[in-house]
Write a structure and sequence with these properties.
The protein has 197 residues and is an alpha+beta fold. The protein contains two helices and ten strands. The longest helix has 45 residues.
Length: 197
């Protein structure tokens, strides 16, 4: 199982005891993730709101902030993306985090997930991975530093895409050469026939 993580510069806001933010933003290109950029498609999280998801600080399972199962983490999907709202616990680390969010020191979010369905395309020389469906959502996290991906799955998929793309290009180039050779042969045959007539 290769869990991937992504971050977003998203509004993370702290109220009295609640924090809201976006774990994921739809249709927005990521930074370069090691040879490709990524987009989370609308509908990628359909059927994932029933997962037992945790809210963690920096993806650290010892710093739990909320959980859907206990009702202290609410997830929803809107036009912007995967929105979360956390009822913060009255713990030292949660209170410290709330102060850091209010000051603007922490303003990014991340989420951990498994991919069920993705595809690759190439746009203006840039390879774009589109996550069409997430098979499991593990956590959403306000983060100090963006959690760059454990991109094993993404890179394996990327390698497969590049191989298919290169094979298609080679096949197309070979077919083009064969058509050009066939056309030249026919032109020569026509030239021969024209001389005879």
């Amino acid at each position: 199982m290769n869990i991937e993580r992504r971050f977003f510069n998203s509004e993370v806001r702290a109220g009295e005891s609640r924090v809201t933010g976006y774990g994921s933003v739809f249709e927005s290109k990521s930074e370069d993730l090691g040879g490709f950029v990524e987009i989370i498609a609308r509908g990628a999280f359909d059927d994932r709101l029933e997962d037992d998801v945790r809210a963690l600080f920096n993806h650290d399972s010892s710093l739990i902030l909320g959980r859907t199962k206990s009702g202290t983490l609410d997830l929803s999907i809107d036009d912007n993306g995967l929105r979360y709202e956390i009822d913060f616990p009255d713990t030292t680390y949660a209170n410290d985090l709330q102060v850091s969010i209010k000051r603007g020191d922490i303003d990014q979010s991340s989420f951990s997930f498994l991919v069920e369905e993705d595809d690759f395309t190439e746009v203006d020389g840039t390879i774009v991975r589109t996550i069409n469906k997430v098979s499991r959502l593990f956590d959403v996290s306000p983060v100090t530093y963006p959690a760059y991906p454990d991109a094993t799955v993404g890179l394996r998929s990327l390698e497969q895409y590049i191989q298919r793309r290169d094979q298609n290009r080679n096949t197309q180039a070979k077919a083009k050469r064969m058509l050009e050779a066939n056309l030249r042969s026919r032109q020569l045959t026509l030239a021969e026939i024209s001389r005879v007539l």
